[in-house]
Design brief:
The complex is a heterodimer of chains A (237) and B (242).
Chain A lengths: L9 E2 L1 H31 L3 E2 L5 E4 L2 E4 H4 L5 E6 L11 H10 L3 H5 L3 E7 L3 H11 L4 E4 L5 H4 L6 H5 L3 E3 L2 E3 L8 E7 L5 E8 L8 H6 L25
Parallel strand pairs in A: 5-6, 6-7
Antiparallel strand pairs in A: 2-11, 3-4, 5-10, 8-9, 10-11
Chain B lengths: L5 H4 L6 H31 L2 E3 L5 E4 L2 E4 H4 L5 E6 L11 H10 L3 H5 L3 E7 L3 H11 L4 E4 L5 H4 L6 H6 L2 E3 L2 E3 L8 E7 L5 E8 L8 H6 L27
Parallel strand pairs in B: 4-5, 5-6
Antiparallel strand pairs in B: 1-10, 2-3, 4-9, 7-8, 9-10
The chains are: A alpha+beta (237), B alpha+beta (242).
């Protein structure tokens, strides 16, 4: 059956090229804006981390410093998997499908990338195995880490709309939220929090969206958000 | 102290409240950027289409496949033009890096009416051997026996390369090799007509590299300023020393 997308304007190759070149100018401008923004992001001041956090990971207890694995930069993906959840969040699982293979490359740029969740380590390890991922995933369940960096909230903060999420007080929905935080460790071993992103600030890392954005139907979500997402082994069930 | 740490050493360190103030101000710019990206995606989809008139036949894992076959029952097709020429022994390291990013997401794209695959001019046995070596699962077909790569500006003749007359990224240029990277999108309507809707080359594929997007968050950024070529640090994932 033909739909609205089938009524699209069809032109000759010469006309297509003309229109495409016009958009290319805008795409290049956008790329330069992205570079400027990246520069500005890295110019943001840092905050020294003064608390001692101890995580549970594949090697037992690990401090925040240990998580750097000898590198100076640490990128954390805060994976929504609360202490009482049976499984990791399907949307975070899609993101993990996007970043699972890139660790090896980031390592060679002096950056360690890992996931952190509040669920106990045993649950994280079992879920990771089921999904076939190989990144490091540690539990912050026994620390305030997720609360301090605003990725977990108390039921009271949520019901009162007083959770500090994405740099304002609001109701973030569930007690666990997704996002990134970035840390730097200097030669003296001091650790600094350099950056964090929430909400659509994470979209740059949704590779599937970058691909969806180049096809005729686009994201095709009709304002409903990513309603269609399932865990990669659950689509055909 | 290593050279690249010099700028990092003197970075301003502030109290949490000051950090939140600076971060919140920057958030406004990030939101503007996200909205600009939405607009650009909208304009991209509004581009006119061109009809594909030629019949292309590819070498695919299950035998010969037409361009229509590559849609695998979906109405949208995304092609990653993977640099792997007929005489190359292995796929391009840079494209291999991009593949490490997109391997695994075709499962999700399938459920958005998209067939996603890679196309190269190297023979199918070479593509399959390399794919196995790298442990990837996406579909990869060979365009070695057709003009597909040339028609969609992902391959050039040695003469075009030597003369700087290759029609690369919508201008006459001198690419470094006969094969270049790119992404093309196609649409198939209910009558079976196929349209070319979009292609991007060079840094047009930048967004699709999550690892670079992550590096952009980290204090050192891509940190390629002193490297020539800028990606001199890159190795295939099984060629990294550790």
């Amino acid at each position: 059956m033909k739909t609205a997308v089938d009524k699209h304007k069809v032109v000759s190759e010469a006309e297509w090229l003309k229109a495409r070149k016009k958009l290319l100018v805008k795409e290049k401008k956008f790329l330069r804006l992205q570079e400027e923004l990246g520069q500005e992001r890295r110019s943001l001041p840092w905050v020294k981390v003064t608390k001692d956090y101890v995580f549970e990971g594949p090697n037992g207890k690990q401090t925040l410093a240990d998580l750097f694995e000898g590198r100076t930069q640490l990128v954390i993906y805060q994976f929504m998997f609360g202490p009482n959840d049976k499984l990791g969040c399907p949307h975070c699982s899609l993101r993990a499908d996007c970043f699972n293979g890139i660790n090896v490359h980031l390592k060679h740029r002096d950056a360690t990338m890992i996931c952190v969740s509040r669920a106990p380590y045993k649950k994280l390890a079992a879920y990771k195995k089921r999904m076939g991922w190989d990144f490091t995933w540690v539990s912050s369940g026994n620390t305030d880490f997720n609360f301090d960096y605003h990725f977990s909230f108390t039921p009271e903060q949520i019901s009162e709309g007083k959770a500090f999420f994405n740099y304002k007080f609001q109701n973030p929905g569930p007690t666990e939220r997704e996002g990134h935080s970035v840390f730097y460790k200097d030669k003296r071993g001091q650790i600094f929090h350099t950056y964090a992103s929430y909400s659509r600030g994470n979209e740059l890392f949704n590779l599937h969206y970058h691909y969806l954005d180049v096809v005729p139907k686009g994201r095709d979500e009709d304002g409903r958000g990513p309603f269609w997402v399932k865990r990669h082994d659950e689509y055909d069930r | 102290m290593k050279k690249e740490d010099s700028g990092i050493r003197k970075h301003p360190v502030v109290a949490h409240e000051q950090w939140v103030a600076a971060r919140t101000a920057f958030l406004a710019k990030e939101k503007e950027f996200t909205r600009l990206r939405d607009e650009l995606s909208q304009q991209r989809r509004e581009l006119p289409w061109e009809r594909v008139e030629k019949a292309y036949v590819f070498d695919a894992p299950n035998g010969k496949a037409t361009l229509a076959d590559l849609f695998a029952g979906k109405s949208q097709l995304i092609v990653y033009h993977f640099m792997f020429g007929p005489d190359d022994k292995a796929g391009c390291p840079s494209c291999s890096f991009w593949a490490d990013n997109f391997n695994g997401i075709d499962t999700h794209l399938k459920h958005r009416d998209i067939s996603f695959l890679a196309i190269s001019r190297a023979s199918l046995p070479r593509l399959e051997a390399y794919k196995q070596r790298m442990g990837w699962s996406f579909k990869w077909v060979s365009s070695n026996s057709n003009d597909f790569n040339f028609d969609f500006k992902a391959s050039f003749t040695p003469e075009e390369v030597a003369n700087g007359t290759a029609d690369w990224n919508y201008s006459k240029q001198k690419p470094g090799s006969t094969e270049v990277v790119g992404i093309s999108a196609f649409y198939k309507d209910p009558d079976g007509q196929i349209f070319h809707t979009y292609s991007c080359f060079q840094r047009g594929v930048d967004m699709m590299n999550g690892a670079y997007n992550y590096m952009d968050l980290a204090p050192k950024g891509r940190d390629e300023g002193d490297l020539r070529p800028t990606m001199a640090w890159l190795r295939r994932h099984d060629e990294c020393e550790d």
